[in-house]
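CO-FOLDING WORKSHEET

Operator: S.A.
Ligand of interest: zinc ion
Run index: 295
Mode: holo prediction, single chain
Checklist:
[x] sequence pasted
[x] SMILES validated
[ ] output reviewed
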Amino acid sequence: MTADARPCPLCAAAFARVLLTAGPRRMVRCGACGLVYRDPLPAPGPPPAALEPDTDLVRREERVADRRSREFRRLLAAAGPPGRLLDVGTGFGFFLRLAGAAGWSAVGVDPDAQAAHYARTRLGVDARAGTLAAQGFPDASVDLVTFWNVLECIPEPLAELREARRLVRPGGRIFVRTQNLAWQAASFHTTEAVKRLGLRRRLEREPHLTFIFNAISFSRATLAGALTRAGFEVLSVRNSPPIPGDPYLGLGAPGERALSLAKRLVFGVAQAVARASRHRVLVAPSLEAWGQVRP
Ligand SMILES: [Zn+2]
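OUTPUT RECEIVED:
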């Protein structure tokens, strides 16, 4: 079957095959480069009514950031001596605050004006609202650019990566953490099988449990391909360690402990597979990649 309309956001090819569907939601695979992307894209939600986020949203964002902070610190430690950092899709600014405390001169960008407002006024970090391209940052002005779980949500990720490439100095680096297609597809097919066992109605009340895809679903190959096309030299693509617990739903302490244990077990298996295949077969829930601009 040939999908209509949306050309591949990585290579612009116009032919793609439907990979999986759930009601009106559909992921297709580019016939040329293999990128898996959502087509059609869902309509964007309404912008927030006020600049001040409500308390529940802030609490949820704090919870997610708290769970991610170990990974934030690991990245900052691995990135070498502090310099100028740009965080794309910076959200409420928690990573910027940690980066600043670690000595980085850090600026963040987020299309969500409410999030950027919170980051500036409550956390005192340099977060700008709007698109990356609209900021007009100078060429080669950044040592490190980071994309934390955000590249998969950007409908045109190559354009975004090319803009990031323009901003990174020679010898500077890019870090991307994103969902992994292999894991997402396996999870999708598992929940589809569970639906057939009679839990369909229950699962369909919570579509985020059954359709866990954003605008793009990267594999090891397409993530490396995206970085290369944008002009980065790929240094590594690996399994990314899991974020402990369940930052979104709040399972209560016993559920959290069980989930953390399950995540560690899954990651242990994924790492064994990765090592046996010399990191060619990556099946963990998330991937992380490092790239650099040739010095
Ligand atoms: Zn393509």
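REVIEW:
The longest strand covers residues 168-179.
Residues 68 and 218 are 21 Å apart (CA to CA).
[x] output reviewed
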